[in-house]
Amino acid sequence: MADPAFHFFHLPFSIRHFLTSPSLLLLSGIEGFQRFSEQPKYTEVNPAEDTLLTCKVIDKRGTCSWQKDNKPVGIYTKKYEWASRMPTSDNGNVLHLDLHPPAVQLGGDCSLWIRSATLDFDDGLWECQVTASDFTTQDALTSQPVRLVVRVAPQRPRLEYEAVHVPPGHNITADAGALATVKCISHYGNPPATLKWFLGDQEISPIHPQMNATEPDNPRTWSATSVVQVSAMRERHGDILRCAAYHESYTAKSVVVEARLDVKCECWDNDMQNSDTASCILNAGH
């Protein structure tokens, strides 16, 4: 009986190519066409801590590799290590670190440990890649780029009113009936801080979504800016306007900066003299 392989390799190339195409392999249910079962996802890590970028492949036959910011990443002991390891000895020492995964890696696990994360070396866009099973199947894999964020605590937020810095606890002075436009800025965070506004105990909305931008002198960190408008009504005189910056790297997870609303009104004293002072609110009968 003739060897089936003999007949196959004597078929025209176009037919052989069709029979080994990934589409036909999938449609026919043939095992061996590798595909992702789990791709890496957005991850945050504190400086000097370890983190795991997960990447798992079904029916893996190719070789795993990783890229960061479109450049290949090597495997280095105590820095970048495969999550899939060979068994350890009785004293706990690793007998062999799987630096070059075999043709069929246990469980198809291409996950990567990043040890002692640093902003300069590890923060960026990461991709998991697997070479094709063989040159005919064309089933090489590349995951979607995902961001690994090495956290940096932002500076304390600051308030600005009419382009002037408002020190914590100072006044924001506005004429009664006017709109006071106040800006809150947080610098040098990674990721950027999340900013929220409160007037008294009530959360209020900014005039547009928070704006984030990389810092010109340190592009791996971010500034966050939020702007709110408060109607300077007489009954709001003395209310406290707060901007809260939220970030996982803050010890208390948030830092608050606040200022007092000073609403000025035009009123008349008992001698019918014009008076431009906030204290007249208290005598105006609201």
What does this structure look like?
This protein folds into 2 domains: 32-150, Sandwich (Immunoglobulin-like); 158-282, Immunoglobulin-like (Sandwich). 10% of the residues lie in helices and 41% in strands. It has 5 helices and 23 strands. The protein has helices spanning 4-9, 13-19, 22-28, 119-122, 279-282, and strands spanning 35-38, 43-45, 51-53, 56-58, 64-68, 71-73, 80-82, 112-114, 124-130, 141-142, 146-150, 158-161, 164-166, 171-175, 179-189, 194-199, 202-204, 211-215, 218-231, 240-246, 254-264, 266-268, 274-276.
**Which structural category fits the helices and strands?**
mainly beta
Percent helix among the residues? Answer: under 10%
Residue windows where pLDDT falls under 50 for at least 5 positions: 1-9, 15-30, 94-105, 272-286
Under CATH, the topology of the largest domain can be stated as Immunoglobulin-like
* Spatial extent as radius of gyration: 31 Å
What is the H-and-E element order? HHHEEEEEEEEHEEEEEEEEEEEEEEEH
Q: What is the CATH H-level superfamily of the largest domain?
A: Immunoglobulins
Number of strands: 23
Q: Which overall shape is indicated by the principal axes computed on the Cα atoms?
A: elongated
Helical segment tally?
5
InterPro entries: CD80_C2-set (IPR013162), Cell_adhesion_signaling (IPR051275), Ig-like_dom (IPR007110), Ig-like_dom_sf (IPR036179), Ig-like_fold (IPR013783), Ig_sub (IPR003599)
Membrane topology: Single-pass type I membrane protein
Keywords: Disulfide bond, Glycoprotein, Immunoglobulin domain, Membrane
Pfam family, one: C2-set_2
